[in-house]
Design brief:
Shape: globular
Strand content: 5-15%
Structural class: alpha/beta
Number of helices: 10
Order of helices and strands: HEEEHEHEHEHHHHEHEH
Number of strands: 8
Radius of gyration: 22 Å
Helix content: 40-55%
Largest sheet: 8 strands, mixed
Strand order of the largest sheet: 1-2-4-3-5-6-7-8
């Protein structure tokens, strides 16, 4: 075999190995993301407004990409603000926020809770990991702005976990939102993917896979995944108020995500950190008033920014 032919064989084998390695690195996020996202979540447990002694109006809105989103409105007379509440990737249902809605109503705030696309009664068969759910928020904001009862009423976005990620992305993409409350958001999908993988496999492998995660997300969702993520969107906050919370030992979204978001946030952003592994920040989520510290932090943030005297 001559030298030229040997070189061609070596080159071919090398290219083949490189392609095999790249294919394997791409396959990991594809498999993981498909298992997490290719579904519609039907909740085993839902709450009703009546469970908390309040009334709610059920309605639907339609997104720019033509999905119907299920929502509930808990109104109050002359509200200081209206608070939009969203939940996590697989659970609980956003109806878990009816406890918060009751607390808000007692303090003269209106509430809308909605299940993001591919959850509950909302349409869709693919969870978009925060990349496209801001379109769901946008449809809710349009509904609010079209309602004369909410003319000149400030809009607050409040999210938990992937809902918090969506809340940050929403305030970055939707200028009509006036304030943000975030509980346990991830800084970007590739960050939390890497952290989970590094905890389950060799770190060097997680580092090799990480650059392919946004590429897979781009192919899957067809959006600019490099800009629609909290570490970028939080920079668009401007002077709008925000309260960002996390727990130090969060096993679902590690505390480092909070640190990255805050490092990119404007200096006026308020923070609240809880010791321990409390992903929902409070262990009394359906009855927030029972957690005096948590409920006081939320109410103080709202009242300091949205009192009827300041309208």
């Amino acid at each position: 075999m001559n030298t030229s032919k040997k070189k061609k064989i070596i080159f071919g084998v090398t290219i083949g190995l490189v392609l095999l390695i790249i294919g394997s690195l791409v396959a990991i996020p594809v498999v993981v993301m498909n298992s997490l996202a290719n579904m519609h979540v039907d909740f085993n447990e839902v709450w009703t407004a009546e469970d908390f002694g309040i009334e709610a109006e059920h309605f639907f809105v339609t997104t720019d990409d033509n999905l119907k989103i299920s929502a509930f409105e808990v109104s109050t007379e002359n509200p200081k603000a209206i608070i939009i509440c969203i939940s996590g990737i697989h659970n609980p249902s956003a109806t878990v926020y009816f406890g918060h809605a009751c607390f808000f109503k007692e303090n003269n705030y209106a509430t809308i809770v909605f299940d993001m696309r591919a959850h509950g009664e909302s349409e869709g068969d693919m969870i978009c990991l925060g990349y496209k759910e801001y379109l769901d928020t946008k449809a809710i904001v349009k509904h609010i702005k079209a309602d004369s009862a909410y003319k000149n009423i400030p809009v607050v976005i409040f999210g938990l976990s992937m809902g918090a990620t969506t809340a940050i992305n929403s305030i970055g993409e939707i200028p009509e939102i006036d304030a943000l409350i975030s509980l346990s958001a991830f800084s970007s999908w590739e960050d939390v993917f890497y952290e989970f993988m590094a905890s389950q496999s060799p770190v060097f492998l997680a580092k090799m896979v990480k650059p392919f995660v946004p590429l897979v997300a781009f192919v899957k969702y067809r959006v600019n995944v490099w800009s629609v993520k909290p570490v970028k969107e939080i920079k668009k906050l401007g002077n709008r108020p925000a309260l960002i919370m996390h727990s130090t030992e969060d096993s679902e979204v590690p505390y480092a995500n909070f640190e990255r978001i805050i490092n990119n946030a404007p200096s006026h952003v308020k923070t609240f950190v809880r010791e321990g592994d409390i992903h929902s920040i409070t262990e009394s989520f359906t009855e927030p008033e029972k957690d005096k510290e948590y409920s006081a932090i939320i109410l103080d943030f709202l009242d300091s920014n949205f009192s009827n005297d300041n309208k």
